[in-house]
Amino acid sequence: MIFAETVGKKTQFTSPVYTYKAHIQVNKMQFEERVDGDSDNRMFKVRSTDPRGPPLTYMCQAEDQVTRNRWTGTMSKQLQTQKEFLQALQAPIAYHNKLLKEL
After folding, report:
1. DSSP codes of every residue in 2-14
2. Overall pTM > 0.85
3. At CB < 8 A and 24+ separation, what contacts does 83-90 make?
4. Terminus of the chain with fewer CB atoms < 10 Å: N or C?
């Protein structure tokens, strides 16, 4: 996941420019959908679990609940896909059998 700051706005003739701030690898990321004290329900938390890097935590705040739900939904799906891929690599036969049962 890349964190960047938008510089400028998109107009008819230009696109926004982004300035890189930081990143967290998805396979070394912890994601929390709820943040204590967020009465507007617009925040979520992303934390790095990389043992080789500094302890990083980003508190993210969306413009509104709909945008927050879109972000958290996308991140949850990505992490679920990664988890399933790891399971398939670790135990391909068991993963294949699980898929056959779901059909």
Report:
1. EEEEEES---SS-
2. no
3. none
4. C
Could you report the per-residue pLDDT of 24-61, keeping only the tens digit for each?
Answer: 998 899 999 989 999 999 999 999 999 998 889 999 99
Chain center to CA of 91: 25
In the chain, count of helices (H) and strands (E)?
2, 5
Quick one: 44 exposed, middle or buried, by C-beta within 10 A (0-12, 13-18, 19+)?
A: buried
**What count of residues does the chain have?**
103
A 10 A CB-CB count for 63 gives 8
Q: DSSP code of 32?
A: E
Burial track 2-33 (b if 16+ CB lie within 10 A, e otherwise): eeeeeeeeeeeeeeeeeeeeeebeeeebebee
Please say if the pLDDT value at position 12 is more than 90: no
**The two three-digit tokens of residue 47, written as one number:** 């934390």
Residue 70 pLDDT > 90? yes
